[in-house]
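Shipment paperwork, digital attachment
Item: protein structure file
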Amino acid sequence: MNELISINPATLQEIGRVRVTSTGELDQAIRNADTAFATWKTDRSYRQGLLRACALEMMRKSAQIVPLLVTEQGKTATEASGEVWISAKAFAHASRIDWADEELGPDVAGRTARVQRLPLGVVAAIVPWNFPVFLTIAKIAPALAAGNTVVIKPAESVSLVVDKVVDILKAVLPEGVIQVVHGGPDIGKALVEHSLVRKVSFTGSTGVGKLIMKQAAEVITPVTLELGGNDPAIVLGDADLAYTAAYLANSAFFNAGQMCVAPKRAYVPADKMDEFCEIFSGLIAAMSVGDGLAPGTTMGPLHNKAQLDFVQSLLDKAVTSGATVVTGGGRGTELPGYFLEPTLVRDLDDSAELVALEQFGPVFPVVAYRDLDEVIATINAQEFGLGASVWGADEAAATAVAERIDAGSVWVNQHNALEVELPFGGVKSSGFGREGGAAGVEDFLQTRVISVKHTS
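Attachment content:
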């Protein structure tokens, strides 16, 4: 029997196993969801009520989810509690979204046309390991609100916590409305290419997103892709450095930096560089690294060895090329897990891989600049376009800079301030389609036109 083994990334101890779904079981799960779709799609007010019940149940069962999320993913208990809370909020928000099921088309003599907005059917939701609870709910809440049913495939290493969440929700929802399957790329491919799947929603790396897009193209299935990001933070000359450094430090090292929309590099005026780094390094030096369940821990481990090795290699290359580690660079704990303490790096430019690539870990590079136009041109020329932020005392001037940046979300004097009420997604290699807001539900609807020619 093939099994997926979950490991605590802080202690490296096994915490549980999940059986891999067979291809026959996958097919049956999709068919169950397709059967449930026939009745689930019919009554929006009924669905809305159950989505509100899901929100309440998530909060009521939070104590069952949080410890498992910490031990399987690695984040702190505070971060895990926040993830459950925003997941419940996503359900509540989706329950309030409204739209016109049908409207009349333009009036033309001799015919009547109705434009309808309909659910798609079975949706495949493929979820990564960094925020397994929220990114599951961010897909299924709007999909269910629109009248679809969902089959979820989580990343192999977070199967336990997604199973737990699905079990909690199944006690609220009708049979077959949500299903979960487990396995590696072969199960993912079979899910994406199944003839009854009408939509694929994927969050993860750009490389895997490209593969899923190719697989979906084989059966002409539409996809929403929320992919990688290498979010820049542009600090203007009039920015409050204490406020900016504090906000960026908290954002950059949230979930050990394993967040697609976290700030992953800062551009700071050359004459402000020393002051900014001094403030920033003091803040992250005070962070406590350790097991996420231990009292006082403010940052946990990276989720897996491959991610730790990748981030460490980028740091090592930067230092070899002349970059300076201002603070950090060690493990920060005696625990055996995948730890790297919060690290600030300076004296490097956009040619360094640590700046140019999405490092996805607790290392934060700061680049000095003298020409703001060059910074904006460099950012817009790079492949990613998920998020960005601009920091300055003059809000109008900072907003004017934000409007020049090619990204799905650009914040002013804040970063990764995700709100379920607003659409979220990327441009360029960061993907397409939107989650959140009314746009998140629209992504799970299709248009049908009924046009009647009058013959008398």
